[in-house]
Amino acid sequence: MSASGGTKAIVAALAANLAIAASKFVAFAFSGSSSMLAEGVHSLADSGNQALLLVGGKKAQREATPQHPFGYGRERYIYAFLVSIILFSVGGMFALYEGYEKIKHPHEIEHWYWPVGVLVFAIIAESFSFRTAIKESNVTRRGKSWKEFVRHAKAPELPVVLLEDLGALVGLVLALGGVGLALLTGDGVWDGVGTICIGVLLVLIAVVLAIETKSLLLGESAGAEETRRIEAAVVDGDTVTGIIHMRTLHLGPEELLVAAKIAVQHDDTAGEVAAAINAAEARIREAVPIARVIYLEPDIYSEAEAAKGADPDATPGGPTPQDTAH
Fold first, then answer.
1. Is 235 strand, coil or helix?
2. Which residues, 6+ apart, have CB-to-CB distance to 280 below 8 Å?
3. How many angstroms separate the most distant Cα atoms in the chain?
4. Residue 199: which H helix or E strand, with range?
5. Cα distance between residue 109 and residue 236, in whole Å
6. Are the C-beta atoms of residues 162 and 134 closer than 8 Å to each other?
7. Contact in structure between 137 and 149 (CB atoms under 8 Å)
8. 249: confidence class by pLDDT, cuts 50, 70, 90
9. Is the pLDDT of residue 326 over 50?
10. Phi, psi at residue 246, to the nearest 5°?
């Protein structure tokens, strides 16, 4: 996995979550707090998630094969999607169930200093992990808002770790609130309420992650800035006079496919067109280094054909013959 994959942030989060998970389970064993149990399962699920991200990054580095000629870059998207499923099922749904059971059958929290001490320790540890994820993200965020970064990042690891760490910090505050209210009132129901709040939070984060990683799995185009640089690099104003149409597709976070039909002069020789295409490919790779796979098809530009617009039958996802018959 490249540096942009946020390996440092993943490893920091994994180390923090393993230590925190162990401390939470110890606190649950001594106190019986359902918030502690839910938080322990949450941290254990997060640890598994970070391990999945590391595995996905490793598998994505495999060389292309005849069966997979474009390589395995999308492995990172697949494993990030698995993370959202685990966070939803193991983390969120378990917390909701545990909170419901605690509200239905409340009992007092014993040895209150265990859950409180562990929660304070966990907040400190998660804060360091979150800080690392923020620093790693700022390298590639380039002035975007955090919402834009999560929505448009092509490398899934950093958004996943960011949302996980944010969810963990908020969940710890909710757990501390639930335990605190249970201790102040002597009513264990509040511990269950805090646990349900944690479950709702985890489910919401899992849904956001699932939506974003699903979009990456389906295949996203290059960003607006990259698209502008590619368009500027293709046209030389001499042999290549324009772009008739162009498609881009991320084969992985750091690998982009570019396919375009380009306009050339009608009296250019085959040798001149071939040289112009090779030069255009070199300019594209210089302007956007992640453009690894480039297909340029020369054609003679026709105003009459251009005026007809794009042919929907020739576009992926265009109407079927039955649709065009109406």
1. coil
2. 233, 234, 236, 240, 262, 296
3. 89
4. helix 189-218
5. 73
6. yes
7. yes
8. very high
9. no
10. -145, 145
Reply yes or no on whether the pLDDT at 4 is more than 80: no
243 three-class SS? strand
pLDDT value at 296 more than 80? yes
Dihedral sign for Cα 79, 85, 91, 92, please.
positive
Picking from 34, 81, 25, 75, the residue whose alpha carbon sits closest to that of residue 55 is 75
For the segment 85-107, the average pLDDT, to the nearest whole number, is: 82
Residue type, position 121, single letter: F
Contacts of 265 (CB under 8 A, 6+ apart): 239, 241
Average pLDDT over residues 138-144: 82
Q: 143: Cβ–Cβ under 8 A, 6 or more apart, which residues? A: none
pLDDT confidence of residue 128? 86
List, in sequence order, every beta strand (DSSP E) within the chain. 240-252, 255-264, 291-300
Q: What tokens does 286 get?
A: 């210089």
pLDDT at 185 over 90: no
What tokens were used for 10?
Answer: 């993943």
Q: What angle is formed at CA 304 by the lines to CA 301 and CA 308, rounded to 5 degrees?
A: 105
User: Rounded distance, CA 262 to CA 211, Å?
Assistant: 34
DSSP 249-305: EEEETTEEEEEEEEEE-TT--HHHHHHHHHHHHHHHHHH-TTEEEEEEEEEE--HHH
- Look up residue 3 and give its DSSP letter: G
Length of the chain: 326
DSSP lists the bridge partners of residue 247 as 259
Is residue 241 within 8 A of residue 268, CB to CB? The reply is: no
Count how many Cα atoms sit within 13 Å of the Cα of residue 272 in the half-sphere of its side chain.
10
The CA dihedral of 60, 65, 68, 70, to the nearest 10 degrees, is 70
Sign of the dihedral defined by the CA atoms of residues 128, 90, 160, 211, in that order: negative
